[in-house]
Structure formats: structure tokens, C-alpha cells
């Protein structure tokens, strides 16, 4: 018998998988708690521009979101390919922005009503005309704090 | 009926499978929302009752964007990449003579008499066309904010050995303690006073 032959002590014991469910459950609970279910489906193309000097929108409950962009493929037949405003779940005209903001503001609790931010999620292909109309409407209802929501990145990439 | 021994052990072997299934479901449905962007304040609609203040032409830095995304900075065609530099030179100019009330003792610019007197007087005016692309507009906004931030960071480094953007982020973070916030608030305010964001957006023009 060679000196270097391995000793055979029988098979290697199997790794216990008893704690696997615990680990998986831990991950599961993590994702369950961080998941935010989307309450609206976005019906417009929403390729946000990039910017580097961004600030985070800290509190979700203080934000009103307005989507702007060309309708997605399935809606283009009905609504055309011009950029549209989406409020909640439907396409709207600029004149409906004011009442929408007032209605959303009324839903919030009183101490939050003065600190609301309007988040504009605008497709980078959209024209400024529609944005100007929205800004005009926002000024009419005194919703002056806006956030042009963007991705983080190099701003010059928008020019392509 | 008498019990015959302990009830049989439930097989928990498939528990992991069930948990994995749920885990994958939540992994797929999770959307990390984009929740950052450029903060701006719109001007209030009511026109002020008093007469508009008289602003010297040299204290205004005009930026025009046309529908093709070209820039006219101070009546000269300019590349968007040079905008930040130009805006910084304008803001940091400090053209008022030494000894006058508007003299800027922290400015490091050229002290050109034909440019802005003092950062607190300097106004950036942005005008865009109705057909300007939103992406271009955001880039211009970003560059102007970057110009302000860089100048503020410089002053903040000088006074507090810290970047202004860090201090502001910490101040706005809800997890920061109240004592720390009180200190930060004062510092942020001080820096903001040194380089106030005076940024006016004209009504968009429809024709070009």
C-alpha cells in the first residue's frame, strides 16, 4: 500500500439544507417590505433625461407625479404620437392639470398640503411647449415646487 | 380514542421551494423607482404690485435655446459644453470696485467691469422655444445648477472644509438628528447667501 493513498472514511456527509428556508424567507421578507406596488400604469413613453446635479425626493407621500410623453405603441392609434400628459390613469389636456393638482392636494393631510412637490416625469423627446403649459397651470394653482425627475448620469448624453 | 405516540412529523422539505417561488415573484415585481431630479421653484403668478426693480444689463446672463437645441449665450452662439464655464465666470466675476458697497471679497473671477457686480446681483435668464426638446432643456438646467454648485462647493470648502452638496444632502436627509440639522441649516444658509440662485425663466416664445 502506498503511503499517499487516501484514507477512505466513507462518504462526505451531506451539507444540511435545513436552514435554507430560513435564508430564503429572510430574503423574501426583505423584498416584500421594500416593494412598492405601482398604482398607475404608465401609458406614455417615459425615457427620462439624465442629469448629474440631482437631489433625491425623500418622502413619497409629499409627491404628486405628472407623466408626459408620446403615447405607447398600443395607444398611438387612438391618441396619436404627439406628446401627451398623463394624470393618474388617463390622458389629459394641459387645462386639467390645475384641477388635478388641487384634487390631489385635498387628499393629503393638512400639514402636508403646503410642502408638496410636483414631480414631472417627462420623456426627453417631448417638446418644451407642453412643459410650459404645465408650468403655467402649476403657477395658477400655486404649486410652485417642481422636480424635473431624471436619471442619474451625464447630462450631455441627452443631446444625442 | 387513545393517542398512539406523537403525530408524524410534517415534511418541511418543500418549504424552501415555496419560499423561493414567492421570492422570485417579489424580485420580478419590484421596481426601484426613480425618485431623484432637479429641484426648481416656479415664480408665483401674481405680479408684484411695486414696480419691477431696475436691473443693469451687465448683471443679466442671457441663455437662449432655439428649437434645434442651439444655444445663444450673451448674444453669441455657444456650445452647450462651455455653458457651465461661462456661467461660473459670470457669477464669480465680482466687477464692483473695491470700497463700494457691492464689492465682493470672496470672488475669484476676472473683476471685469462689463460683467456682473456681485454674485448676489447676478441673474441668469433662460429662454427657450416651444419646440425645444426637453432633453436639451434639462441639460442646460443641469449645467447652470452645476455652475452654482461648484462655486458653492468652493466657498464651503474654504469656510467649513466640506462640500456644499454633501451638507445640503445631509440637511435634507430625514435621518439626520435635530442638533446636526441646526448647525447644517446655518451653514447651508450662509453659503446660499454667498451665491444665491437667481434664475429667471422667461415665457417661452412660440415662433423663432
TrEMBL record, chain A:
<dbReference type="GO" id="GO:0005886">
    <property type="term" value="C:plasma membrane"/>
</dbReference>
<keyword id="KW-0813">Transport</keyword>
<comment type="similarity">
    <text>Belongs to the ExbD/TolR family.</text>
</comment>
<dbReference type="Pfam" id="PF02472">
    <property type="entry name" value="ExbD"/>
</dbReference>
<dbReference type="GO" id="GO:0015031">
    <property type="term" value="P:protein transport"/>
</dbReference>
<protein>
    <submittedName>
        <fullName>Biopolymer transporter ExbD</fullName>
    </submittedName>
</protein>
<keyword id="KW-1003">Cell membrane</keyword>
<keyword id="KW-1133">Transmembrane helix</keyword>
<keyword id="KW-0653">Protein transport</keyword>
<keyword id="KW-0472">Membrane</keyword>
<dbReference type="GO" id="GO:0022857">
    <property type="term" value="F:transmembrane transporter activity"/>
</dbReference>
<feature type="transmembrane region" description="Helical">
    <location>
        <begin position="12"/>
        <end position="37"/>
    </location>
</feature>
<dbReference type="InterPro" id="IPR003400">
    <property type="entry name" value="ExbD"/>
</dbReference>
<keyword id="KW-0812">Transmembrane</keyword>
Automatic annotation (TrEMBL), chain B:
<keyword id="KW-0813">Transport</keyword>
<comment type="similarity">
    <text>Belongs to the ExbD/TolR family.</text>
</comment>
<keyword id="KW-0812">Transmembrane</keyword>
<dbReference type="InterPro" id="IPR003400">
    <property type="entry name" value="ExbD"/>
</dbReference>
<keyword id="KW-0472">Membrane</keyword>
<dbReference type="GO" id="GO:0005886">
    <property type="term" value="C:plasma membrane"/>
</dbReference>
<keyword id="KW-0653">Protein transport</keyword>
<dbReference type="GO" id="GO:0022857">
    <property type="term" value="F:transmembrane transporter activity"/>
</dbReference>
<keyword id="KW-1003">Cell membrane</keyword>
<dbReference type="Pfam" id="PF02472">
    <property type="entry name" value="ExbD"/>
</dbReference>
<dbReference type="GO" id="GO:0015031">
    <property type="term" value="P:protein transport"/>
</dbReference>
<protein>
    <submittedName>
        <fullName>Biopolymer transport protein ExbD</fullName>
    </submittedName>
</protein>
<keyword id="KW-1133">Transmembrane helix</keyword>
